[in-house]
Amino acid sequence: MRDRTEAAAKARELVSRMTLEEKASQLKYDAPAIPRLGIPAYNWWNEALHGVARAGTATVFPQAIGLAAMFDEELQEKIAGVISDEARAKFNGQSRHEDRDIYKGLTVWSPNINIFRDPRWGRGHETYGEDPYLTSRLGIRFIRGLQGSGKYLKTAACSKHFAVHSGPEALRHHFDARVNAKDLNETYLAAFEATVREGEVESVMGAYNRVNGEPACGSETLLKKILRDKWGFKGHVVSDCWAISDFHVNHKVTDTAPESAALAISNGCDLNCGNTYLHLLEALQEGLVTEDQITTACIRLFTTRYLLGLFADDCEYDRIPVTDTDTDEHAALALEAAEKSMVLLENDGILPLNPDQIKTIAVIGPNADSIPALEGNYNGTSSRYVTFLEGLRDYAEKQGIRILYSLGCHLFKDRTSGLAQADDRLAEAAMYAEAADVTIACVGLDAGLEGEEGDTGNEYFSGDKKDLLIPESQRRLLSVLEKSARKLITVITAGSSLNVPGGNASVFTWYPGQAGGTALAELLFGEKNFSGHLPLTFYRDNSDLPDFEDYGMTNRTYRYFTGKPLYPFGYGLSYTSYQILNASVSGNEVKAEITNTGKMDGEALVQIYVACDSPFAPVHPRLCGFQRVCLKTGESGCVSIRLDPLTRTVINDEGKRIAAEHGTLYIGLGQPGADNIQEPIAIRF
């Protein structure tokens, strides 16, 4: 296994030969070369959220929220391993051509483990959902896949954005997220702690906002007292991009750029994504920082570069060829992930489709033939995109089924052509729906409607959503199709909770990646069985939600929501049925016997929730274990599930974790009390 002590010693020796100016120059994301020491230029800014991003051709997996919907730790790590293989392959080839540009290095700023506390947040689809435990487990396994298990790091992963960060996007550069000690430790820090302690993540990125008055990228509380002193973090800290300049420009906690640079580096922010650290030497002259602080940051950064094997002759990952990108094997894994991530929300029996009973299918909607609807954000560029229309047509025509296609409407505008009247494609949509045996309406959002503040294409609210509805143009389309279609299947593409009328069946695809169309066709026709589950609570209306700017957990997420959800966290239908026959608990392990009682093979998701007997427990039982299990029709199987080691604990009002001697474990197929599932087995402890 890799040796941090040895890497740090080598970094310390190399940095000792640098001038003060050279050391300071290495603390920006676009670190220049130092030829006299044999140090090449290196750009730290790279993305790999669900595939190597923004660096040319790469396998595009489902967006992070879709990966979360798989509830599959092993597949999560396997996917991340493929991503890091492709990152290494591209780095090896590009470096030989002296291409050391942005997005082409090995320090990948992923995963995003912020908690998706409010469905209006535009960047929520970059996360693993609303649950701290699910986020922790998937974050750890993604990091392991990215970093590998060899002598060197395959890539260096990054847990972001530390901390208490989930919108509003329009306010993020000057917003102060106020949070009490219980919510901070129970909800917002839990996944970060897990990825630092257990995941051994190499870097942590700070957030734009303040947290209880302190800017996150210069917070003594977060970066010193918690991250390094309490959790023992040994890697490097990077700022979010241009977040340090926000200190004096927007947060007004400092007056000048040198003061901002000093605040950040003094509290342990080693790397500046931005240019404020150009003022470090000025800050040194003003007595605001010391050379030792600059040196320490530089050593931490070069320790990471040594751990990556960037100055080694024996790094096993240097042998990964450039042809290990965009392979058939990687494409097959992207298809498997898309199949396992899609969630069947409603089904009156129309699904799976029987090709012997169908002659014509109308595929209608702005996301039917849309590549952006497959991608999400922070994405790479696939050479193998299959849109929903393409996937359905390819499958249907082999069965002798005719496909009719209409755009139906613009994604969000009231017409598809500037010279046309409003709703210029509705008549076409109606006439095709009338002519078809089944209509498949492909509606929803893309990353141009929900995403990051400042991203090109965000049409409103800086990437955040104003409500839980699809755009009005699409609502009018669905209204027409509900009247015109003989049978209507609604396929919803988005990365967040939406309330969309369903028709005879409803499928939520997330942003499913390059193979989305193939996966959808296989699922709708029953070649594969649905097995995805919601990593989010789906709410009915904005009125269910607290104020967007309120970071308290009261009435937020399934753990604290007191209303009736549209669909609960952990929900997902199948073409078959399952029954848990018995369960037992021994220490931190649960064993359960489960049977496929239906007429189709499938993959069940066993979910375990805990309700501690404590006034400090959440309002509802919280997730503490999960495991997928493959079962043929009529087959029974036993599954062993490791419980969260913190299952029998709670966080008190002072933010301290304390033991809970008694409580109840619920072993089932969903949340206790959720509709349409077997009531879980309850076991007291």
Structural topology:
Layout: H1 4-16, H2 20-25, E1 30-31, E2 42-43, H3 64-69, H4 73-96, H5 132-147, E3 158-162, E4 176-177, H6 181-188, H7 190-197, E5 203-206, E6 210-211, E7 214-215, H8 220-230, E8 236-238, H9 246-251, H10 257-266, H11 280-285, H12 291-307, H13 328-341, E9 343-347, E10 360-364, H14 372-375, H15 388-398, E11 402-406, H16 426-435, E12 438-444, H17 472-484, E13 488-493, E14 505-508, H18 516-524, H19 557-560, E15 578-586, E16 589-596, E17 602-612, E18 622-631, E19 636-642, E20 649-651, E21 657-659, E22 663-668, E23 681-684
Helix pairs in contact: 1-12, 4-5, 5-7, 13-18, 15-18, 16-17
Question: Describe it for me?
Answer:
By secondary structure, the chain is an alpha/beta fold. The protein folds into 3 domains: 187 residues, Alpha-Beta Barrel (TIM Barrel), CATH 3.20.20.300; 227 residues, Glycoside hydrolase family 3 C-terminal domain (Rossmann fold), CATH 3.40.50.1700; 107 residues, Immunoglobulin-like. 29% of the residues lie in helices and 17% in strands. It contains 19 helices and 23 strands. It has a 6-stranded mixed β-sheet, sandwiched between helices. β15 and β16 form a beta hairpin. α13 crosses α18. The longest helix has 24 residues. The radius of gyration is 25 Å and the shape is globular. The mean pLDDT is 97.
- Helix vs. strand class: alpha/beta
CATH architecture of the largest domain: 3-Layer(aba) Sandwich
- Principal-axes geometry comes out as globular
Arrangement of strands in the largest sheet: 9-14-13-12-10-11
Mean pLDDT: 97
Name of the CATH class of the largest domain? Alpha Beta
Number of domains: 3
Please tally the β strands and state the result.
23
What Rg, in angstroms, do the CA atoms define? 25 Å
Q: What is the straight-line distance between the termini?
A: 38 Å
* Contiguous runs where pLDDT drops below 50 for at least 5 residues: none
Share of β-strand residues: 15-25%
According to CATH, the homologous superfamily of the largest domain is Glycoside hydrolase family 3 C-terminal domain
Biggest sheet architecture: 6 strands, mixed
Fraction of residues in H or I helices: 25-40%
What name does the CATH topology of the largest domain carry?
Rossmann fold
Count of alpha and pi helical runs: 19
